[in-house]
């Protein structure tokens, strides 16, 4: 139980093993740039226009927010509140799910789950959520309505992922189902990240700079700010918009589009006001799938920068390199 950060009370000081050296700490934001917000229904639902907006946002930022996305707002609220209740359970009950075993379908861990030299200000409930029938038996029994909310959420997420992947493919001029099948075939995994209030946010980080490994990540972040992306060497806040969902591109999207879309580096900062909870769902290729730049996106002027490889090999390298894009891609560069 000592392993978990949140034990039911707010810290008055930052424990030493959470203090980052000055160069790694969060800095004051220099500027605010508005990350694109895309209306998925839009004016009369002009599919082409929506696909174009998604393409432009992906090219520039590697992240965008969507509204009118079709996921019931009550379900989003319920997921946020039921998982929040999970983190308010007595620490011993949460600790019963604690595990360092990366292959467990459901587990609680803290920081990154590896033996970090400096810890991150975050606990995480990790759940494989889809296909529902394969995983629902492992989801926590408490709070009592958690299983039912996760089940409905997983199904809604799958639907949304299909719609978003199709729009991305269309924006790229690829066939509509390009990302279906193996390229998004790994079971859907969600991380419920819980960042307790931190007495001195200037010393800590919720999550370090990283790029998600897969194709896209779908994120709920409630009403509390904390997500930042790296854009032209500057950290920009992705502040919450009521009822919006954040979509960010993972590294495989950058590789499959031969660098056209950006896998975005991002991190989470802490605050001293209130807890922050985010739910990230990771769309990943199945481990055996073959990854390569899409043939339709390469030509003489724009030759392939990456070799083809099996996703399992990339993933092992990603884990070793702690989510660092350059290092993870190095063996696969042409
Ligand atoms: O909490 C957030 O906003 C970011 C979470 C995240 O990047 C992740 O879980 O991979
Ligand atoms: Fe992430």
UniProtKB/TrEMBL annotation:
Transmembrane segments: none annotated. GO terms for molecular function: dioxygenase activity; metal ion binding. Keywords: Dioxygenase, Iron, Metal-binding, Oxidoreductase. Residues 186-285 form the Fe2OG dioxygenase domain. Gene3D superfamilies: B-lactam Antibiotic, Isopenicillin N Synthase, Chain. It comes from the Eukaryota. SUPFAM superfamilies: Clavaminate synthase-like. InterPro entries: DIOX_N (IPR026992), IPNS-like_FE2OG_OXY (IPR044861), IPNS-like_sf (IPR027443), Oxoglu/Fe-dep_dioxygenase_dom (IPR005123), Plant_2OG-oxidoreductases (IPR050295). Pfam families: 2OG-FeII_Oxy, DIOX_N. PROSITE patterns: FE2OG_OXY. PANTHER family: OXOGLUTARATE/IRON-DEPENDENT DIOXYGENASE (PTHR47991). Belongs to the iron/ascorbate-dependent oxidoreductase family. This is 2'-deoxymugineic-acid 2'-dioxygenase. It comes from Apostasia shenzhenica.
């Amino acid at each position: 139980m000592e392993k978990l950060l949140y034990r039911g009370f707010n810290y008055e000081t930052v424990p030493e093993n959470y203090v980052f050296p000055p160069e790694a700490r969060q800095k004051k934001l220099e500027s605010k740039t508005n990350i694109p917000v895309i209306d998925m229904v839009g004016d009369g639902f002009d599919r082409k226009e929506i696909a174009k907006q998604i393409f432009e946002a992906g090219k520039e930022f590697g992240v965008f927010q969507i509204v009118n996305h079709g996921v019931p707002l009550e379900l989003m609220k319920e997921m946020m509140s039921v998982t929040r209740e999970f983190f308010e359970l007595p620490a011993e009950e949460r600790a019963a799910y604690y595990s360092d075993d990366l292959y467990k379908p459901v587990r609680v861990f803290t920081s990154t789950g590896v033996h970090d030299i400096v810890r991150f200000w975050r606990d995480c409930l990790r759940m494989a959520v889809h296909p529902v029938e394969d995983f629902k038996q492992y989801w926590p029994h408490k709070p009592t309505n958690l299983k039912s909310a996760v089940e409905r959420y997983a199904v809604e997420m799958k639907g949304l992922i299909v719609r978003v992947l199709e729009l991305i493919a269309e924006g790229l001029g690829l066939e509509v189902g390009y990302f279906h099948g193996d390229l998004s075939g790994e079971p859907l995994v969600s991380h419920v990240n819980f960042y307790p209030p931190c007495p001195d946010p200037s010393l800590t980080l919720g999550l370090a700079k990283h790029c998600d490994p897969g194709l896209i990540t779908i994120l709920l972040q409630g009403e509390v700010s904390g997500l930042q992306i790296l854009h032209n060497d500057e950290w920009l806040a992705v502040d919450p918009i009521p009822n919006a969902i954040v979509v960010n591109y993972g590294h495989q999207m950058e590789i499959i589009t031969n660098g056209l879309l950006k896998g975005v580096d991002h991190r989470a900062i802490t605050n001293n006001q209130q807890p922050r909870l985010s739910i990230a769902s990771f769309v990943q290729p199945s481990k055996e799938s073959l990854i390569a730049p899409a043939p339709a996106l390469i030509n003489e002027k724009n030759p392939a920068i990456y070799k083809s490889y099996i996703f399992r090999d990339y993933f092992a390298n990603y884990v070793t390199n702690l989510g660092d894009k350059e290092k993870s891609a190095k063996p696969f560069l042409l």
